Amino acid sequence: SQKTQARHYKTLQQLYKTKKPNKAAVTQLMDLEFQSRRLFIDSDAVKEQDRPTKILEAYPCFREVDHVLDELRRIIQPSNSRYISEMKERWENFYSKVQFYGVMKKVMKPPNTLNGGM
Question: Where are the domains of the chain?
Answer without folding.
Answer: 2-79, 81-110
